[in-house]
Design goal:
single chain, alpha/beta, Rossmann fold, 3 domains, three-stranded antiparallel β-sheet, 16 helices, 48% helix, 13% strand
């Protein structure tokens, strides 16, 4: 069963809720589809609870919700909208069986075509769902699908405009001072107004990415983003660390992410092993800080902050990095959990020297980071 059929069914259900004056936003519908991918679709109670939570159903709307749920998820959406189409909608029971509740019930191609026919009903592209999917739940096929999206996000960063205004021959704000200077050369005639526009500045980034075992579920996707970033922004240096620091920049190639990551996993010492964040960052500060970091450089540390070493060393290394960098950003995949608190020993030692602590648990969180890097 394709994921599109489930998306269409949720969209129809949400439309029926809105017709009953129950407030359901498009973002809630996306959350509902995501929630249904995390529960047992053969369990009606789980499906009902997941939809009620994801769609933010208020207590006063519970009765109408339960009525529509019974019609849409037990009797089929056709009963709720009999005049919508002469083609009967797929019964939810069959829909759930094809999602995997009943083994051996592979749908025929004509059934799939019927399920994805949406007409003028709202729906969502697979990209929207992929952006919200946590990295630890992603598969190899998701990684391949994300490559293009990650490259697009990296290109946006590489072409972000800064606040600095520079002369331009195209459109832009009028530069009165330069316009008057040019007018002096033509006896006071303003033949052409000088203009300024925001400059496109290629960012200068140094990224230090944790590849220890506790980061294993996120590492492939984060490195995929970093490799795309390197292709788009050439002045990007990438290091990985666990129990030691390794500079990746000379190893990187424009090849697809899969082979590149396989090579890194094979050649980087102690990949997916233990972690000593403090010692690794101290090594970076001692060997590369003066050469690679200045007042125009943004340093990004990607780690969950679970350090097994001496946190005093980590604090000293972060202090040295902060003293030279324009900004220091720490990306922590654990922040995708609403219960997250930066109480790990490594995070506590690093936080005084971090300008921005942000999440890195899905593609959407990485895309939100882009304007902050260019600021």
């Amino acid at each position: 069963m394709s994921e599109k059929s489930l998306v269409v069914h949720v969209a129809r259900f949400a439309r029926a809720l809105r017709e009953r004056e129950i407030l359901v936003s498009p973002a809630d519908e996306v959350d509902a589809v995501t929630a249904l991918t995390l529960v047992d679709l053969s369990d009606r109670a789980e499906v009902r609870q997941a939809l009620r939570v994801a769609l933010k159903i208020r207590p006063r709307d519970a009765g109408a919700f339960d009525e529509l749920f019974k019609r849409f998820w037990e009797s089929g959406p056709a009963a709720a909208d009999p005049g919508r189409s002469s083609r009967p909608a797929s019964p939810p029971a069959a829909l759930l069986r094809r999602q995997g509740a009943a083994p051996g019930s592979e749908p025929e191609s004509r059934d799939l075509e019927r399920d994805v026919a949406v007409g003028d009903l709202p729906g969502y592209s697979p990209e929207a769902l992929l952006r919200k999917k946590p990295f630890e739940e992603c598969t190899e096929s998701d990684l391949r699908a994300m490559e293009r999206l990650l490259e697009r996000a990296a290109y946006r960063l590489a072409t972000c405009r800064s606040r600095r205004l520079v002369p331009t021959r195209g459109r832009g704000a009028v530069d009165l001072r330069r316009s008057f200077r040019k007018a002096v050369e033509t006896d006071g005639e303003f033949l052409r107004l000088a203009r300024r526009a925001r400059a496109v500045e290629e960012p200068r980034l140094v990224v230090l990415c944790d590849t220890s075992g506790s980061m294993d579920a996120h590492t492939r996707f984060l490195l995929c983003f970093l490799l795309a970033l390197k292709k788009a922004a050439r002045r990007t240096e990438i290091f990985v660390f666990n129990t030691a620091l390794t500079r990746l920049t000379p190893w990187l190639s424009p090849a697809r992410i899969g082979p590149t990551l396989e090579r890194l996993a094979a050649e980087v010492p102690d990949w997916s092993g233990g972690t000593r964040i403090g010692e690794s960052l101290a090594e970076f500060a001692a060997r590369h800080l003066d050469e690679m970091v200045d007042g125009k450089t943004v340093v990004i540390v990607v780690s969950d902050g679970l350090d097994r070493g001496d946190t005093a060393i980590l604090g000293a290394a972060m202090r040295a990095i902060r003293s030279r960098a324009r900004r220091v950003i720490w990306l922590n995949p654990l922040m995708g959990d609403p219960r997250f608190e930066p109480t790990a020993r490594g995070m506590e030692a690093a936080l005084p020297f971090v300008d921005l602590l942000a999440s890195a648990h899905n593609l959407e969180s990485l895309e939100r980071l882009i304007p902050r890097l260019a600021a």
